[in-house]
């Protein structure tokens, strides 16, 4: 245990969940006299699911026998710690339903060595392959267990919300293989449980998941998430997450461009992208992505062919697919000719292929068009906008070589449930179909892994204060080119500096780098020699020294910065800069432990490649500058290092301003 009462990280390496998810001996500790009690409801769920193991109810923890796989504690909060102490190490896993601990200011629970604790404040779990239904929640009264597995598993920090997701998936005809609600996470957190599921399946003890769904409201620590994403990528398991409660503002947002544009959500999103995992924005998107992953699997695929009987629906579908990062390729002349030969003259053989309203209902023609597109090698995915009974004709069936989805426009989730349950990939609207199809398209991932965590400056170390001039010196020495500048303490020195470096100049007060110079009125631009003396005299009345810098004329203003984050360590941001950086927010933010090459790639994809050929090489230059700032922050233990703006001058990058804090 650490000082906060939580079990330490090394216990999570290679977590074996077989005794939790497929137990042989289950103990229920708590009163079971009332049918509506939590213990009684758990026993009923196990009975209804035909759980094959042994289930025994006990009134005290010391009655639980040695060798118990799972002990479920359903007693008042005040009695929980005593029950835990009485059970000791006789149970491999303990599930605590009770609430009223850290969330109300009480001390965290403690478990014995060798015992893992799920909860407290959890609704429990289920695992369909083993018919283990260890939950009291009414949402699981009619849970379908056994039968063919979907390959999808849900881990949720919120039990009630997780139960809703399970029910929502069932309405689509998707029956999840399992669910774990991690609750207050005094020991087992959601990411550790998900990683343990992959590890346990690899050892042959549990069914291998095809996809893991996550609902996260917050992260106690970053490393479990990093470990999960890396393990899932290596094992070929898709991870799709819905994040709630992650702050959109960094700790220093009031004083730092870097913090304002590198929100927690943006940093986590970039980490997911690096490992090929997906983030969704709504619970509906999470379930629809799960449908796609269960039925279609996942493979490297970005090119989509669209077949529709409505030109308008095809246009809307193209917009939605593009928003998912998918591409509608222009079909080759030869392929267009093949498709056109199957259709009436008024049809369009371009992508989207508009077969016309009079032809979309002809299953024979539809089947030939879809087969021609699939066999062409020019599309990786296929979206057909038609009727729900056309899945067979369109080839929209589970496991198809070219993932194919049929979208209908006038149904709800329950209306297509029976189709999905028998392996037909039919979704009730365009958005749902595109989300499911996008989930099957594995994005390109980064190479390698995050660097190991870097040591940070001790909290007891006295904070250091740097001036604006010291910041420029540090950044320049760190390998980032700066505009020519000199420090002046008098009007005569300002004039001499301007004569030496060339007029016009920028005058900046050499104030504490934690202050925002522009907002505080400490900057004068385009100062020529005629105005220099008066301007310098005015500024020197409030500052002991001025920075005199060459006034450059950049063709583009960029930005790079590094901040210290309590979870991620150093976070790096880079992108478009200037005075309106917070308004533009066209940046990439990521943990600084990711490779510099990934930053360059993402800058190119999200910013510089939007105008092909015009900004060639800038992504690599900006990533290299950001990498130099990371090295500077890491070596010096600085809280913040940023350059804004970084000007593009004659094709090279020059920092026009710099700040180092802490």
Task: Please give a structural write-up.
By secondary structure, the protein is an alpha/beta fold. The chain folds into 4 domains: 9-245 and 276-294, NAD(P)-binding Rossmann-like Domain (Rossmann fold, 3-Layer(aba) Sandwich); 299-439, 3-Layer(aba) Sandwich (Rossmann fold); 484-550, 2-Layer Sandwich (Dna Ligase, domain 1), CATH 3.30.1490.20; 557-661, 2-Layer Sandwich (D-amino Acid Aminotransferase, Chain A, domain 1). Helices cover 33% and strands 21% of the residues. The protein is built from 21 helices and 29 strands. A 7-stranded mixed beta sheet has the order 7-6-9-8-10-11-12, sandwiched between helices. Strands 24, 25, 26, 27, 28 and 29 form a 6-stranded antiparallel beta sheet that branches. It has a 5-stranded parallel beta sheet with strand order 2-1-3-4-5, with helices on both faces. Helix 2 (38-48) links the parallel strand 1 and strand 2 (54-58). It is flat. Residues 1-11 and 247-255 have low confidence and may be disordered.
Tags for this model:
single chain; Rossmann fold; Dna Ligase, domain 1; 4 domains; 6-stranded antiparallel sheet; 21 helices; 29 strands; flat
């Amino acid at each position: 245990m650490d000082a906060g009462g939580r079990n330490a990280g090394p216990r999570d390496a290679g977590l074996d969940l077989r005794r939790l998810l497929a137990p042989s001996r289950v103990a229920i500790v708590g009163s079971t006299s009332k049918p509506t009690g939590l213990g009684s409801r758990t026993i009923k769920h196990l009975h209804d699911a035909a759980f094959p193991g042994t289930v025994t109810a006990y009134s005290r923890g010391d009655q639980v026998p040695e060798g118990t796989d799972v002990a479920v504690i359903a007693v008042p909060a005040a009695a929980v710690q005593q029950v835990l102490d009485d059970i000791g190490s006789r149970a491999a896993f303990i599930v605590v339903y009770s609430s009223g601990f850290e969330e109300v200011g009480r001390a965290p629970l403690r478990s014995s060595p060798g015992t893992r604790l799920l909860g407290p404040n959890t609704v429990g779990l289920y695992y369909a392959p083993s018919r283990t239904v260890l939950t009291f929640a009414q949402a699981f009264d009619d849970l379908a267990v056994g039968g063919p597995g979907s390959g999808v598993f849900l881990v949720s920090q919120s039990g009630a919300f997780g139960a809703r997701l399970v029910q929502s998936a069932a309405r689509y005809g998707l029956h999840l293989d399992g669910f774990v609600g991690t609750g207050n996470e005094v020991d087992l957190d959601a990411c550790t449980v998900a990683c343990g599921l992959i590890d346990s399946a690899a050892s042959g003890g549990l069914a291998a998941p095809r996809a893991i769904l996550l609902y996260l409201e917050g992260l106690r620590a970053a490393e479990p998430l990093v470990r999960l994403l890396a393990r899932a990528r290596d094992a070929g398991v898709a991870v799709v997450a819905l994040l709630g409660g992650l702050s959109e503002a960094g700790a220093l947002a009031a004083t730092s461009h870097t913090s304002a544009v590198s929100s927690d959500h943006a940093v986590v999103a970039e980490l997911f992208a690096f490992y090929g995992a997906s983030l969704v924005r709504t619970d509906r998107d999470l379930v629809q992505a799960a449908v796609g992953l269960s039925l279609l699997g996942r493979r490297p695929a970005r090119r989509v062919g669209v077949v529709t009987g409505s030109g308008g629906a095809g246009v809307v579908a193209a917009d939605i697919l593009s928003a998912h990062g998918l591409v509608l390729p222009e079909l080759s002349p030869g392929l267009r000719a093949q498709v056109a030969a199957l259709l009436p003259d008024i049809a369009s053989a371009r992508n989207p292929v508009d077969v016309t309203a009079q032809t979309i209902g002809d299953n024979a023609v539809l089947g030939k068009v879809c087969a021609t597109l699939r066999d062409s090698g020019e599309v990786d995915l296929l979206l057909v906008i038609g009727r729900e009974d056309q899945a067979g004709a369109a080839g929209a069936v589970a496991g198809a070589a070219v993932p194919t989805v049929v979208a209908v426009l006038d149904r709800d989730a329950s209306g297509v449930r029976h189709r999905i349950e028998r392996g037909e990939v039919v979704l009730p609207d365009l958005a749902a179909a595109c989300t499911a199809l996008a989930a099957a398209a594995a994005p390109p991932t980064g190479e390698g892994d995050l660097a190991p965590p870097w040591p940070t400056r001790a909290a007891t170390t006295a904070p250091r204060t740097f001036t604006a001039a010291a910041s420029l010196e540090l950044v320049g020495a760190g390998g980032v080119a700066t505009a020519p500048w000199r420090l002046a303490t008098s009007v005569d020195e300002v004039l001499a500096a301007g004569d030496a470096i060339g007029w016009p100049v920028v005058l900046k007060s050499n104030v504490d780098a934690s202050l925002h110079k522009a907002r505080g009125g400490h900057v004068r631009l385009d100062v020529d020699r005629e105005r220099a003396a008066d301007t310098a005299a005015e500024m020197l009345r409030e500052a002991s020294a001025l920075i005199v810098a060459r006034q450059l004329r950049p063709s583009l203003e960029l930005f790079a910065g590094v901040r210290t984050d309590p979870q991620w360590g150093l976070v790096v941001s880079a992108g478009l800069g200037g005075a309106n950086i917070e308004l533009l927010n066209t940046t990439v933010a990521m943990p600084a432990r990711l490779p510099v090459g990934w930053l360059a790639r993402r800058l190119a994809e999200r910013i510089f490649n939007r105008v092909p050929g015009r900004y060639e090489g800038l992504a690599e230059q900006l990533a290299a500058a950001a990498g130099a700032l990371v090295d500077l922050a890491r070596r010096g233990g600085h809280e913040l290092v940023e350059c804004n703006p970084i000007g593009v001058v004659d094709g090279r990058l020059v920092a026009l301003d710099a700040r180092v804090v802490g």
